[in-house]
Amino acid sequence: MAGVLVPCVGAVITDDAGRVLLARRGHDPGAGLWSLPGGRVEPGETDAQAVAREVAEETGLSVACGRLLGRVRLPGPGGTISDIRDYRAMVTGGKLAAGDDATAVRWVSRSELPGLPVTPGLAEYLDAWSAWDATEAT
Asked: May I ask the CATH architecture of the domain 5-130?
């Protein structure tokens, strides 16, 4: 993949039932698709700061950023490449509500995921990273 790399982060957040928090994207790329909360890392921000900011903006929740689960590169707008680093994150406060560029947010079980329109590769990444395991939250 050739193109300018755009640093991005995503948050893998699970509840006690092992469901993963997803946000339905309100804008391109991927408008209308369900994905992990996340977005671009702003200049001067650490990945942990970007995870906390993006989750708060999209879901209304405060989180603590945990360990890196994996990294993917996906085609972005204008020939760019979104270099996405997905981190485990734990809810520390807030109230769940869609905000910013998310049109909806919801907890999704592994069995519900195949019925949702999701961003390319999401199901495979979540499985590969054991995202569904609520005991792996740290």
From this structure: Alpha-Beta Complex (3.90)
